[in-house]
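User: Can you model how pyridoxal-5'-phosphate sits in this protein?
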Amino acid sequence: MTNAAAFEQARQVIPGGVNSPVRAFRSVGGTPRFLVSARGPYVTDVEGREYVDLVASWGPAILGHAHPEVVAAVHDAASRGLSFGASTPAETELAELVIDRLSVTPGSHHLNGKSLVTTKLIDELRLVSTGTEATMTAIRLARGFTGRDLIVKFSGLYHGHSDGLLADAGSGLATLALPASAGVPAAIAGQTIVIPYNDRDAVRAVFAEHGDRIAAIITEAAPANMGVVTPRPGFNAFLADTAHDNGALLILDEVLTGFRVSAAGFWAQDAFAIREEDDGSLHLISPTYLPDLVTFGKVIGGGMPLAALGGRREIMERLAPVGPVYQAGTLSGNPVAVAAGLATLRLADGNVYGRLNDVAEVISDAVDDALTAAGVPHFISRAGNLFSIQFCETPALDYAAVLAQDAFRYGPFFHAMLDAGVSLPPSVFEAWFVTAAHDEDAVSRVLDALPAAARAAASVSPV
Ligand SMILES: *Cc1c(COP(=O)(O)O)cnc(C)c1O
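Assistant: Here's the modeled complex, given as structure tokens:
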């Protein structure tokens, strides 16, 4: 079977031939590859062609595809039953592991020779099945906790596809050149205030006007759904501080960054707020700067449908069955998904994150060099091991700047890479994802393909 035949057949029975719009090649053109298997850093399509994969299932595959220990854990769990609709000890183990990962213990972190005082980011975790559910629930919980309705969201950031969060929601919509989704009632869209990212004045203005009606600010720890955009230094801490000054919550969406850019998430790298007290002790994230709710997805399920939200006990215990905020899921905490997540997180040690960083650095530097050599104006935007190309010379720090780049250069670049056996995200508005399984052979296949792709990007003119 060819990819073209598979796509044609799919289009008869699946809208657009895809079950998630980002998989369609709408912005780069051509035929999506239909995959049949994946192993380590490679994916294989229906035609038997192998590609070095820089999509990694949009993030989860940090260890590479079909890691033998993860697959064994999944087999083992599956053999004991696919779903019970009742609690399992493994769910508690996963919650404990995540809560522990998000804590900083004395002596384990140092800054300028001083050790940091223990801080726990979250006390409790609720497992759900998708990132969309995690952020949707976080919003409902923030509203239930504060008794307020309004949500502040940044343009270009993606928090899943629930009604209130689809305005200016980054990659998927940007790729299709849609400002917002049809089918969202105006009354619901009107509860979300959308402002430019990295813009402190816009945040201050919105709180000056609506401060006592805002339940929460929701933000990606590092935006990576309009390509990678980095928060200006201190921006996340500023958001927490501003929210708290106004009796609102900060929801930190780490669905993409959590457990991918570090053993915890971007917040741990971001020095969210390292504060020096009068006695000289250093406190990572003083309570003022703590996010109140954190959402996870992607890596936490190791490739299976699993996501989560966590927060302080007083907030989390507003959730049913303890509190009045309802949330539920037939497959929540599914034993097979939990097994995949636990195995993945347990294997993701310092060596894995070291390898992810090294691979990201080698590849992103090589992209940078190839585009420079080809004379293409560009900036490589990086947040930890996530990166993407911006076809503009100065870093784009908000959605307007991201949309203003020479996005037309990406299609030819993408297809030159694909022809050379490298699978990139099919949109300039997506981050590239490396895995710890990208060995020298896989990396050199990427590096070898770059010069011709950069020349393809150079040769195209706007349509
Ligand atoms: C992917 C993503 C989501 C949505 O997760 P799904 O599992 O696709 O529903 C939410 N927030 C961010 C930051 C994401 O990257």
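A couple of observations from the model: The pocket of pyridoxal-5'-phosphate is lined by residues 130-132, 135, 158-160, 220, 225, 253, 255-256, 297, 307 (CB under 6 Å). The longest strand covers residues 214-220.
User: Helpful, thanks.
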